[in-house]
Amino acid sequence: MTDNEDQVAGLLLAAGGGRRLGGRPKALLEHRGRLLVEHAVATLRAAGCTRVHVVLGARADAVRRRAALDGCVLVDNPAWEQGMGTSLRAGLASLAGTGARAALVSLVDQPGIGPEAVARVRAAYRDETSLVSAAYAGVRGHPVLFGAAHWDGIAATATGDRGARAYLKEHEESVALVECGDVAQPYDIDTEADLVHLE
């Protein structure tokens, strides 16, 4: 097994404007004394990603000013209002030419998914043809790992809020599912009611 330390880059999608949260960007919500975007970066790092790219959109200036994101590559997505697909495309484009052979994609609004689950998905990386997804009771969820051989195909189909869903469905038989339901809770912070998950 080759050392995949630098071959798998962390890609954090943190551009959303929190439309259903009264326009509060999710990256700037607090959880356990720090911003969600900091929490998510720390999770990727703890899972072994030494290179982390963070896609910013809503109130990107405020996120840059307030969040401690030292050592991360910050990627601006001016089209963030068009949905998560644009962030995924911007993030994958930012990894081109870095030497990364896979992107481990996580979402800023899922603090219930910790380093253990992320590390499991990362450990399933084999080469740039890898397609890996966390699963919860057998149902595909996040994080997901995309080998570089898939980036162009994913970018071509990532539209609106669907991200890579269409691509993964089309390549279902190639996706390795890694069960994480025993170590993580895949809830999203989407609405006011979801704020109960934040501590």
From TrEMBL:
<dbReference type="InterPro" id="IPR025877">
    <property type="entry name" value="MobA-like_NTP_Trfase"/>
</dbReference>
<dbReference type="InterPro" id="IPR029044">
    <property type="entry name" value="Nucleotide-diphossugar_trans"/>
</dbReference>
<dbReference type="Pfam" id="PF12804">
    <property type="entry name" value="NTP_transf_3"/>
</dbReference>
<feature type="domain" description="MobA-like NTP transferase">
    <location>
        <begin position="10"/>
        <end position="172"/>
    </location>
</feature>
<protein>
    <submittedName>
        <fullName>4-diphosphocytidyl-2C-methyl-D-erythritol synthase</fullName>
    </submittedName>
</protein>
